[in-house]
C-alpha cells in the first residue's frame, strides 16, 4: 500500500515545507504573512499540532466541519430545484446546483457545460455588453432568450468541475500556492504557474489567491455560492444582488421576486457549508495498488506531470484567519490532501480566450485541472474537447511542451502504466 493511502501523522518540522506556518493570510490583511518557524517559542500553535490525511470518500458523509444533519440540509438545498416563485431566472442555466454538480454524488462535477463568450479585438478581451462572459442558456420566458452572434469572436464551452473536497482547497494558505509558483519560476523552465488575487465577496476590499473555477476566479466557497446562485440559477443574494443581463438583455420586467431572492442568505450559507463539509474524492485503491499503477505514478513524476499536477499539499493550521467571517476549522486545518494540482493558471495551449478576475495576461491560461476524482470524468479539458486520457495529455502544449514530449517518448508499455495510474485517481 502506498504512503498516501495510509492515515499518516507528521509531526511539526518533519519536512522543510511543513515546518513553516502562516498564521495570518497575507492577502487578507494585505501585509506580509507572519511566518513562524516551528522551532520558535512564539508560535501560537500547540506543539501537538499534527498533519493528518484528509478524509476521502463518495459517501455523503460530513468531513466533520458541520454535523451530519446540517450536511444533509445543505445537500438538500444544493439539490433543490428552484421554481420561478423562488426567484429562478429570469436568466439561468439549470434549476439546482446538483443539475451540474452530481456524479457519483452531489457536489462532484458532471458532463454539463456552460457557454462563455466575448470579443477579442486589438489585443483586448471584452465581455459581451451587460457584464460577464457567461451567456445563460435558459430563460423563464421565450421572448427573453439570449443568443450570441459572430460579433462575439471568442466562444467557448466550459465543463462543470468537481467541488467535493473544496473545503480543504479553501483552507490552503495563500503562501503555499505562492511558494509553488515561486519554485516553478525558479526551476521548471517554461513552467510558470500564475497566482492571481481575487476579491472575497463577503469581505469587501479583501482578496486571496484564487483557486476555484477554470480561471481561478474565486478563493472562497461562500463567494462561489453567491456567484453561482445568481449566475447559474438566477437567485440573487446578499453577495451578488442584481440579476444578470447576459449579452445586454434586460429581463427585469419578467422577474416577479424582489432582490435579494435569497433574502436571509440561508441558501448560500448552507450550500457553502455543505461544500466545505464534503470529503475529498477517493481514488480506486485496488487499481492504485497494482504494480502497473505504482510504476505509472513513478513515470508521472519522472516525465514531469507533477510539476503542475502537484500530488500533495497541506492545508493551513486550524484557526488561520481566511476572512473576517471564516477561520480554518479543525476539520479542514492541518490536513494532507492529494489534489494533483497546483491551483495555478498556466498556458498549456488549450486557450479558452476568456478573461475573468485575472487580467489580460490570463486570457489563454487555465487552472491546472485537479486530477483527484479523474476516474469519475468522461469529458476532459475545460471545454470537454478531449474524450480520452491520451487525447487530453497530447492536447497539452505551451508550458507543458517539454513534459508532453517526454510522455510521447514513452514506450507503449510505459504509457499504459501511466494511464493506469491516472485511471485510479
Ligand atoms: C449549468 C451548470 C452549473 C450549475 C447549475 C452550477 N454550476 Fe457550479 N460550475 C459549473 C461550471 C461550468 C464550473 C466550472 C468553473 C468555471 O466556471 O470556471 C463550475 C464550478 C463550480 C465550483 C468550483 C469548483 C472548482 O473547484 O473548480 C463551485 C464551488 C461551484 N461550481 C458551485 C456551484 C454552486 C454552489 C451552484 C448552485 C448555486 C452551482 N455551482 C451551480 C456549472 C454549474
Ligand atoms: C505546465 C503545467 C502542466 C503540465 C506539465 C501537465 N499538465 Fe495536465 N493540465 C494542465 C492544465 C492547465 C490543464 C487544464 C487544461 C484545460 O482544461 O484546458 C491540464 C489538464 C490535464 C488533464 C485533463 C483533466 C480533466 O479533468 O479534464 C489530464 C488528464 C492531465 N492534465 C494529465 C497530465 C499528464 C499525464 C501530464 C504529464 C504528461 C500533464 N498533465 C502535464 C497543466 C499541466
Class per helix and strand makeup: alpha+beta
Which value, in Å, is the CA radius of gyration?
21 Å
What count of structural domains? 1
* Distance from first to last alpha carbon: 15 Å
Order of helices and strands: EEHEEHEEEEEEHHEEHHHHEEEEEEHHH
The unreliable regions are 1-47
State which percent range the strand residues make up: 5-15%
Strand order of the largest sheet: 1-4-16-13
Helix content: 10-25%
Look at the structure and give the mean pLDDT: 90
* Oligomer designation: single chain
Number of strands: 18
Bound molecules: heme C
Strand count, sense and closure of the main sheet? Answer: 4 strands, mixed
Number of helices: 11
Described by the principal axes of the CA atoms, the overall outline is globular
